[in-house]
Predict the structure.
Amino acid sequence: MAFELPELPYDYEALSPHMSSETLHLHHDKHHQTYVTNLNNLIAGTDLEGRSLEEIVTSSYKDPAKAGIFNNAGQHWNHTLFWRTMKKGGGGKPGGELARKIDDAFGSFDQFKEKFKEAAVTQFGSGWAWLALDGDRLKVMKTPNGENPLVHGMSPLLGIDVWEHAYYLDYQNKRPDYVQAFLNNLVDWDAVEAEMTKAA
């Protein structure tokens, strides 16, 4: 069965002013749709057709003959997580087990935020910054292009897209402002905790 673009879990105005309706229409309806369309076209009639998205991402990684498949599958996976871990009125601090694991791994929530911002701002060119579960410990990492922690044996819990199409309409070239707004106003920590529970 062909992959489909998931609907946003909120309306196009919901994340404004931190992420505008214009950005969501461009980013979700155009960019993400293109990854889905390309992926379906590239896997049609191959041994990857009918496999799960995670299987396609991990099995095509580092295979030069499948670079196009990997890039589009990775971006489809990454964006699907990106949309579902944001919400209207997000930000603040996580609670429960996630908060405890963040304190264990980084010392404090504020230190986690600094590490995550640094990863997002210093990712050269296009890519992502992540909070990922490695075994039972949390890590912050950054990846280029469509790569994600799955290919390194980890479970991605939260990712921020630092490709320019994610923020240029709203923040121009001010990537640090976009990252700050994401952490302070958009992250759905309950959804991130749900990802951690699912991965455990």
Observations:
- The mean pLDDT is 97.
- The first strand starts at residue 127 and ends at 134.
- Helices lie at 21-43, 53-60, 67-84, 96-106, 109-122, 168-171, 175-186, 189-199.
- Strands lie at 127-134, 137-144, 155-161.
